[in-house]
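Task: sequence in, structure out. Protein: Flavin-nucleotide-binding protein.
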Amino acid sequence: MAPDYFDTQMRRTDLAWTDWPAVETFLRDELICRVAVNDTPFPYVVPQSFTFTGDAFLIHCSRFGRFSRLLHEDPHIGIEIDRPVALLKAPKGQNTSLEYYSVIARCKAITRLNTQDVIAHQNEALGKFRPEKDYTAIEPGAANQIVAIRCEIESLSAKKRILADGQYSPPGQPQAPYLRYPFERGASVSGLPEEAFDPHRFSRVK
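Result:
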């Protein structure tokens, strides 16, 4: 069942990605998001590794940088995640395009500085990257260098343009005779080999 924050209404209805289980799988698999915070006169955008929890994105940053300062001043942020799939070419120049998946979320950032709160946040975030849980405990000194940020989702929308789903040209226009050139698969959790999650890898190192 889709969460209440999932917004499926958009101008280009042919591009609306409304399959929540597929969107959720995408968010749990992707590695990098882009986070926009309010600044003057331009937004400040940073790439972040992230963990999607179902109702929030978990990220972190240094306590001493511009990003943490701006979050303290205004916790309202935008998050974007995308995956290019293929280059599309057609005889008409305006029909050169891309296949892609993308998600945009509006969130409110809740920050934590307490050492134990930061460690708990980081342990939750590590579940995506180290489900084998073979690591030693996070040291308080390391936790005291970062801000734990829980980006609670207020609204989230998703788009996709995939030829296999019949999404060709804008509504009312003839279907363009596209040629499709897939990109190599990008970085993702599911793209890692099985040995990346071997809980005994370090115990075998001599």
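Residues 55 and 153 are 6 Å apart (CA to CA).
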